[in-house]
Amino acid sequence: MQVIADAACCVASWAADGRQPYHGRLMHVLVTGGAGYIGSITVERLLAAGHAVTVLDTLVTGHRGAVPDGAELVIGSVGDQDSVGRLLRDRRVDAVLHCAARSLVGQSVAEPALYYQENVVGGVALLNAMRETGVGRLVFSSTAAVYGTPLSTPIDEDAPLRPINPYGATKLAFEEAMRWYGAACGIRSVSLRYFNAAGASAERGEEHDPETHLIPNLLKACLGGPPLTIFGTDYPTPDGTAVRDYIHVLDLADAHIAALELTASSDSGLRICNLGSGSGYSVLEVLRAAESVVGRPVPHALGDRRAGDPPVLVASNERAGTLLGWQPRRGTPQEMIGSAWDLMQRRAAARGAG
Ligand SMILES: NC(=O)c1ccc[n+]([C@@H]2O[C@H](COP(=O)([O-])OP(=O)(O)OC[C@H]3O[C@@H](n4cnc5c(N)ncnc54)[C@H](O)[C@@H]3O)[C@@H](O)[C@H]2O)c1
Asked: What is the full DSSP assignment across 206-225?
């Protein structure tokens, strides 16, 4: 593992600042995948709340520059059990936020071995390292893909679990491992099943390659990239296009902090919680919202449905309210698209100035 900055610096400056000492509600959090989209923005919020953060990331899809100042970056894999154990012990980590994963559905179908190795075997190595070092608090980035094609919507946490691709299956397999490790060694964990993360903070956003998500692809189309293809226009939805539940990445980050706090006090074992808005927007509604934000038409083409794409995927978020005291606060597509567009514009201006 390669250490990029020394966590001791963060902790020392923290004490010198006269802020609260290490114990109490402040935590030292290991964020796996903290150089990725959701992880890096959550790191930003954790630091702003006064927590200390170490990021563990291979940079396979993440970016070194996405890790906020003030967090230590360690380049390495969650699957390296001995090194992760040393990291947990040396940094006196209180809780782990496990965002690292492979998460491309199509790739998972073509390369299931990669997904089982990274998402399941790698995750179990992390659990073993936690067990060995006595770190007993874990929050996990799970996904709506564990439900597969739902029988009804909104989807609550008791809906049947029938993933239809290795990505969803490996996320579900890791949830099961969390459950059994919780029972056997007292790890207190929360699995957050996200629906579609969207938007940006003032400094960080989505930078995937390939990009499979709707909003960044809409904005790229506006900037001269390939026209957006709308897959399916004959779904049983009001305008014929698929409906999805979008959640602002800053709201997601806040939910992670609430979940980490919950692991301080909850009983051992696994809690499961959807993170969605409870309502959805169609692809065409999102496209129209993007046009209103950007002020020009989004080049697009109409295509056939893709295999395995359900007409509607919307979360029930009642449990998130009762368990985490959490509600999304930035719920309109305009807010999500607007934040992503603003960041793109600022970056383009900075490149122009540079
Ligand atoms: N983006 C979404 O809408 C969405 C929806 C549902 C679930 N999720 C889940 O949320 C998490 C974060 O998603 P994201 O969109 O930020 O993805 P991302 O690809 O931007 O971030 C994942 C990070 O994990 C790192 N990583 C991958 N394998 C690793 C390993 N073995 N060890 C250490 N680091 C490793 C990558 O380099 C990357 O920085 C993932 O677990 C994903 O499955 C995301």
From this structure: ---SS---HHHHHHHHHTTS
- Domain extent at residue 262: 2-199+247-275
Q: Which amino acid does the sequence have at 278? A: G
| Number of the ligand 1 atom closest to the C-alpha atom of 63 | 39
Q: Is the CB of 194 under 6 A from ligand 1?
A: yes
Ligand 1 atom nearest to CA at 98: 41
- Active-site residue (options: 37, 115, 147, 167): 167
Residue 275: in which H helix or E strand, if any? Answer: strand 269-275
Nearest CA, atom 10, ligand 1: 141
**pLDDT at site 18:** 34
Residues 181 and 39 in one domain: yes
Q: Give the pLDDT confidence score for residue 308 in this predicted structure.
A: 81
Same domain? For 258 and 308 the reply is no
- Per-residue pLDDT tens over the stretch 100-137: 999 999 999 999 999 999 999 999 999 999 999 999 99
Q: How far apart are CA 163 and CA 171, in angstroms?
A: 9
CB of 60 sitting under 6 A from ligand 1? yes
Testing ligand 1's pocket by substitution, the residue of 4, 31, 59, 60 carrying the most ligand atoms inside 8 A of its CB is 60
The domain spanning residue 183 has which CATH number? 3.40.50.720
Q: 97 CA to middle of ligand 1, Å?
A: 11
Distance 230 CA to ligand 1 centre (A): 25
pLDDT band at 5 (very low <50, low <70, confident <90, very high): low
* Domain co-membership, 121 together with 223: no
Rounded (5°) CA angle 108-196-322 = 120
167 given a catalytic annotation? yes
Do 237 and 258 reside in the same domain of the chain? no
pTM to 2 decimal places: 0.93
Burial category of 207 from C-beta neighbours within 10 Å (exposed 0-12, middle 13-18, buried 19 and up): middle
Q: How many domains does the chain have?
A: 2
Query: Which residue owns the Cα nearest ligand 1 atom 31?
Result: 77
At residue 136, the 3 state secondary structure works out as coil
Q: Domain with 348 in it: what CATH number?
A: 3.90.25.10
